[in-house]
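call fold(seq) -> tokens
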Amino acid sequence: MRRWKLMALAVLAIAAAALFRQLSVPSARQSRIPAGISLAGVPVGGLTEDEATQLLEEAFSAPLILNYLDEALYLFPQKVGFRVRTEEMLAELRRLRPGPWGDLLQRLLRRPVRIADVPLRADYSEAEIRRFLSEVAARYDRPPRQPQAVLKTLSFSPGRAGRRLDVEASLPLVIEALTSAERRQVDLVVETLPPPKPTIELLGTLLEERLADFPGVAGIFVKDLASGEELGIN
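ret:
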């Protein structure tokens, strides 16, 4: 009987040691973030909180590429006051961690990895973004160019189309990219302004220049049947 008791105690000791070993594994890993967890779309499973913080800040400090037609412009997040509220995100992440017993049960029962994403918590200045876009507009917008009279051929050279940045339509696109770890490129909304058509006044200027060297007396009357505009030169 004594022998059986000793054997039972030995089995219990081995089981206790095995259980202690199982418990010690999650305790050692507790500084590591569980697999399947991400911060604002940035996978951080298996990292420490310090490593996750660095990775998160690197992702959101990368400059945005803003395309104004074929011009690529860079917007650095700090220029518009962008700042990730890291501590708030880490606090929410800690609530997702199962703890040693939960981690042990998950591994023993072979439960699937829990997939969870902590939403982005960040500050930025919408006013600064709008100011930046206004500066882009002031630099790259151009008005349409009027057609020019060509005296030699009594014709008009075509005008040139203009372009204008739609700041209000581009603003939400920039904010969306600013708060995304992956989509860091934006095609700004640029409106094309068609060139104006030749006016009857421009025609009058062309005819007057043509008649300036005419030695005789001339009189010209022109009426635009579509608009009703009239032009008279005596």
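Residues 15-20, 22-30 have pLDDT under 50 and may be disordered.
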